[in-house]
Design brief:
The chain is an alpha/beta fold. The protein is 48% helix and 12% strand. α9 packs across α11.
Length: 390
């Protein structure tokens, strides 16, 4: 016998007294799916596809939605749009804002989804879920989702320097390892492709059995060196642009610029200072919890009944900032051993019998990020920290 749960005779419909037209955008490389909920249209959500990148068709669809809503209700309604942060970046968001349309970009990982092992997922289902998320967000429901704060074009462009340098250095490592691997297969070790005399030493190399390098292998390595030298020059050019942004003589209202303030701390060099500023500290944060959460260093407890354990940091924030902070934390112990943060780390590790250093260094990175945020925003000097002499 099939049993059905009790429910009211008339299902609860979606609110029809909407004060705006709520729209979600599901973006792909070929088409954009527009899902909308309009006043006077009942609980049904309309769906419409436009070619990807066709802003004119998108705005024409918005005008059509407003015209139909006016025909049904006799009132004009604004449009509120939501989209997921992804491959398209923020250019669509900026276009909509320039057109006077309220636009929101949501972190897709913060939107609630079904916990079933095999859940249905299509663009139509995701579009409707985004509209419901937008409705709840505009109603003021707490923690319904996490909206992304779009950076200004200048801020977005400035952080490309650090990201490009990271890509170039990774490519440099690949070429160096490939050259060493080719030589190792011939019994040659100890060759360093990054040395200035790399070409001269290549001509002098002999295989493990005493033969000169085979001609095709030598030609291949020479071409690898050509690409490696190009990367070295590009890395130098990027570092020159980066250092220009960190010039300590640049002042704002008679005080050192925040980038220069970071560079003045012993243990923080040009690369670390530029990453800290361009990836995180240029933003406005209300409190230290927001700072730690943005870097993905916020704790994630797991509590249910008698179960109470810590899962570690969330890793939900900026991965470049988080990785840099872990590196800075290890270097902080070397360059700032008498600072309050370093002494706290040593005491905590000593209390654990010398164990859990990797776990404690993450906690130190979180404390260090908060301390650096207070330093660049309020001028609060880190207790015991050594400042470089001019």
């Amino acid at each position: 016998m099939q049993i059905k749960a009790d429910r009211p005779e008339t299902p609860n419909a979606i609110r029809s007294d909407l004060g705006a037209i709520f729209v979600s955008l599901e973006l792909s490389r070929s088409a954009w799916l527009i899902t909308s909920l309009s006043p006077g249209g009942g609980e049904k959500m309309s769906k419409h596809n436009v070619p990807a990148g066709d802003i004119c068709a998108l705005l024409a669809r918005f005008s059509d939605l407003q015209r139909k809503a006016f025909a049904r209700t006799g009132q004009s309604f604004p449009i509120i749009v939501i989209q997921e942060a992804g491959l398209d970046g923020f250019w669509i968001h900026r276009v909509l804002q320039n057109e006077g349309i309220e636009s929101h970009v949501v972190d897709p990982a913060s939107v609630a989804t079904s916990r079933r092992r095999r859940r249905a997922k299509t663009d139509r289902i995701d579009g409707e879920a985004l509209v419901r998320t937008l409705l709840a967000y505009k109603r003021g429901e707490p923690r319904v989702c996490a909206m992304v704060k779009a950076p200004a074009p200048e801020e977005e462009d400035r952080r490309r320097l650090c990201r490009e340098r990271k890509v170039l250095t990774n490519e440099r490592v690949l070429h160096v390892n490939r050259i060493k691997g080719l030589l190792f297969s011939q019994g040659v070790s100890g060759y360093e492709p990054l040395r200035r005399d790399r070409r001269q030493r290549l001509d002098e190399l002999r295989t493990g059995d005493g033969r000169p390098l085979p001609p095709h292998l030598k030609t291949q390595i020479s071409r690898e060196l050509d690409r490696l030298e190009l990367l070295i020059e590009q890395i130098k050019a990027v570092e020159t642009e980066r250092d220009a942004l960190l010039d300590p003589v640049v002042k704002t209202e008679g005080a050192l610029a925040p980038q220069a303030m970071l560079l003045a701390i012993k243990g923080i060099g040009p690369e670390f200072a530029s990453v800290l500023w361009s990836e995180g500290l240029f933003r406005h944060f209300d409190n230290r919890r927001q700072v730690a959460s943005y870097a993905g260093l916020a704790p994630t407890p797991w509590q249910s009944g008698s179960v109470d354990r810590e899962q570690g940091v969330s890793k939900a924030g900026n991965p470049r900032l988080r990785t840099t902070l872990i590196q800075i934390a290890w270097l902080w112990l070397r360059h700032q051993p008498q600072s309050a943060l370093a002494l706290w780390f040593e005491e905590r590790v000593r209390r654990n019998g010398g164990r859990l250093k990797k776990t404690t260094i993450v906690a130190l990175a979180r404390k260090l990020l908060v301390a650096l945020w207070k330093y660049v925003t309020a001028g609060v000097v880190i207790e015991g920290a050594v400042i470089k002499t001019a």
